[in-house]
């Protein structure tokens, strides 16, 4: 059995679904169910005895300790995090509490549990911490991609809080011997992505006939990773990663944001053309750039390939087509996650158009 934290969020839920599609090993799924956690994503697991969902906070030491003692997982995979840069700019406190304080409490609970295990179980136990490339800061146009040895230079409250959590995980390995693994991934996209992030926001707004807001000049570059490729990388690191090591997970798909938006528009033109034939790209609207917006991220994932034989299965072209088609095929899921709180957030964030 494994314990997954944050398993109702975008990446965590995809991981749980893929895990149980390929394994009979049960999952205890602990999620706080904030705005981005969605049990509807896990609906197909209803009644599946291999999936036990528990609503709760990783910072609740009594709850986490009870779950560990009761279910005796062989591994903990930690996805639980506040993860949206824009939200961290407007309200950083939640990010400090969940990503730093919450991770600390989780590590303390796991350390106590691990220390109580008998020899063989103790040797086999793993704590895998899922992090982000944003901890490394921003790259210039011609800079080499981030390796695992790149200096940490976080530029937003979100990335600073994730950097702090990474340092805590590293410290618990070096100080206490906790058998940890860390993955730092590039921008994920794919099914069940909450529509505040770039790709799902563009799809949802385009279909609704709304403006497609693009920050600044739209030339911020990201490395795009299909979420199911990310999940396969995590499974591989959990299986065979070297203790205490960091593995970067990337898709080898560096693209500027504006190119992503045009790609989404072109796919929608093909798959769900607008009445009257006007292209979706006509809805693109440039808005004021966000404060401290990192210009470029790029992941060097050669260590993961060389040591563990992992490579992404999807190209960007295949992954983005699957993603757009999924949103077209699942309008009910999209409608249900777009609560009043979500609409208020989007209205607040993208209200200022650039001159």
What does this structure look like?
The protein is α/β, with parallel strands linked by helices. The chain has a domain at 2-188 and 227-250 and 292-314: Rossmann fold. The protein is built from 13 helices and twelve strands. It has helices at 10-22, 61-71, 85-90, 93-116, 119-124, 157-176, 198-207, 227-240, 257-271, 302-308, 316-329, 331-337, 340-349; strands spanning 2-5, 27-31, 51-55, 75-78, 126-132, 180-185, 187-189, 212-215, 221-226, 246-249, 254-256, 284-287. The strands form three sheets. It has a seven-stranded parallel β-sheet, sandwiched between helices. Helix 1 packs across helix 8 (227-240), helix 2 (61-71) packs parallel to helix 4 and helix 7 (198-207) runs parallel beside helix 9 (257-271). The model has no long low-confidence stretch (mean pLDDT 92).
For the record, the CATH architecture of the domain at 2-188 and 227-250 and 292-314 stands as 3-Layer(aba) Sandwich
Output the CATH class name of the domain at 2-188 and 227-250 and 292-314.
Answer: Alpha Beta
Total of DSSP H or I helical runs spanning 4+ residues:
13
Percentage beta strand = 15-25%
Strand order of the largest sheet: 3-2-1-4-5-6-10
Provide the CATH topology of the domain at 2-188 and 227-250 and 292-314. Rossmann fold
What value does the average pLDDT take? 92
Compressed to H and E, one letter per element, the order equals: EHEEHEHHHEHEEHEEHEEHEHHHH
Structural shape: globular
- The N- to C-terminal Cα distance equals 55 Å
């Amino acid at each position: 059995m494994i314990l997954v934290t944050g398993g109702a969020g975008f990446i965590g839920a995809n991981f749980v679904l893929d895990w149980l599609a390929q394994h009979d090993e049960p999952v205890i799924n602990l999620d706080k169910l904030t705005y981005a956690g969605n049990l509807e994503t896990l609906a197909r697991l209803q009644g599946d005895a291999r999936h036990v969902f528990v609503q709760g906070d990783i910072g609740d030491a009594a709850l986490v300790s009870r779950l560990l003692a009761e279910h005796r997982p062989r591994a903990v995979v930690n996805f639980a995090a506040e993860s949206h840069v824009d939200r961290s700019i407007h309200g950083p406190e939640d990010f400090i509490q969940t990503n730093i304080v919450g991770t600390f409490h989780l590590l303390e609970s796991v350390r106590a549990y691990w220390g109580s295990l008998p020899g063989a179980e103790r040797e086999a136990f793993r704590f895998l911490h899922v992090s982000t490339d944003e901890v490394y800061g921003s790259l210039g146009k011609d800079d080499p991609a981030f390796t695992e040895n790149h200096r940490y230079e976080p530029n937003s409250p979100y990335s600073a809080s994730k950097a702090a959590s990474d340092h805590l995980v590293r410290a618990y390995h070096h100080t206490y011997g906790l058998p940890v693994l860390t993955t730092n991934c590039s921008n994920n996209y794919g099914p069940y992505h909450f529509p505040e992030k770039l790709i799902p926001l563009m799809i949802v707004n385009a279909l609704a006939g709304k403006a497609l807001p693009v920050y600044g000049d739209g030339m911020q570059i990201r490395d795009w990773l299909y979420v199911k490729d990310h999940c396969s990388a995590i499974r591989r690191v959990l299986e065979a990663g070297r203790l205490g090591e960091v593995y970067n997970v990337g898709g080898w798909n560096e693209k500027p944001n504006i190119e992503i938006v045009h790609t989404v528009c072109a796919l929608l033109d093909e798959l769900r053309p607008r009445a009257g034939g006007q292209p979706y790209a006509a809805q693109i609207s440039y808005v004021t750039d966000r404060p401290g917006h990192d210009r470029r991220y790029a992941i060097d994932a050669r260590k993961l390939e060389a040591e563990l034989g992992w490579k992404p299965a999807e190209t960007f072209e295949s992954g983005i087509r699957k993603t757009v088609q999924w949103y077209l095929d699942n309008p009910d899921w999209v409608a249900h996650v777009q609560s009043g709180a979500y609409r208020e957030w989007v209205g607040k964030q993208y209200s200022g158009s650039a001159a």
